[in-house]
Amino acid sequence: MNRSFELVEFFSGRKATFYTVLFDGEELTEGDKFLNNEQVKQNRAFKDLKHYFFNMLEKFGAQQQFFKHEGRQHDMVRAYYVRRENLRWYCVYWSREMVIFGNGGVKKVAKTQDDEHLKESEYAMRWVNQCIEQAFDEGRFGVDYDGKITGVTTFNAEEF
């Protein structure tokens, strides 16, 4: 899924700033797609997921205990989840102050690869991770101490 995209500020609080991804040709951001998904909203873990999400913004920052490693060995792709429940929200975990949220859903299978939607959501975040790491290495992307992105927020697929 090598598509051009923009990083858009999603939510900002005293302790963290959360971004989401808007792919070219899409009207909704990936984060909004997740929050508007009926299966997600009806999942028993959704209320807790939202509660911790907003607490991270205002009180604690993005604590690593809520982010399960999902990508390749040395990347920053994670799944945000609550207490071993089956709700997964894929993201790029940059720091306690900044996370980039993608899409996700209810995991009903043993392996993410066995659910096409979850697989696409995770792989999309792998692509985002690859692009921001390259831009960071080139000095075109950074994050300040408040979790605000410095540098590029638009990523053209042809450049990466």
Largest sheet: 7 strands, mixed
Radius of gyration (Å): 15 Å
Structural class: alpha+beta
Oligomer: single chain
* General form: globular
Write the H/E string, N to C.
EEHHHEEEEHEEE
Helix content: 25-40%
First-residue to last-residue Cα separation: 12 Å
Strand content: 25-35%
Tally of separate helices: 4
Count of strand segments: 9
The average pLDDT score comes to: 94
| Lateral arrangement of strands in the main beta sheet | 3-4-5-6-2-1-9
How many discrete domains?
A: 1
Provide an overview of this structure.
This protein is of the alpha+beta class and 160 residues long. The chain contains four helices and nine strands; from the N terminus they run ββαααββββαβββ. It has a seven-stranded mixed β-sheet with strand order 3-4-5-6-2-1-9. A two-stranded antiparallel ribbon has the order 7-8.
Give a quick precis of the structure.
The chain is an alpha+beta fold and 160 residues long.
List keywords for this structure.
160 residues, alpha+beta, two-stranded antiparallel ribbon, 31% helix
Could you outline the blueprint of secondary structure elements for this entry?
Blueprint: E1 5-12, E2 17-23, H1 30-36, H2 38-42, H3 46-60, E3 67-69, E4 77-80, E5 87-95, E6 98-106, H4 116-137, E7 141-143, E8 149-151, E9 154-155
Parallel strand pairs: 2-6
Antiparallel strand pairs: 1-2, 1-9, 3-4, 4-5, 5-6, 7-8
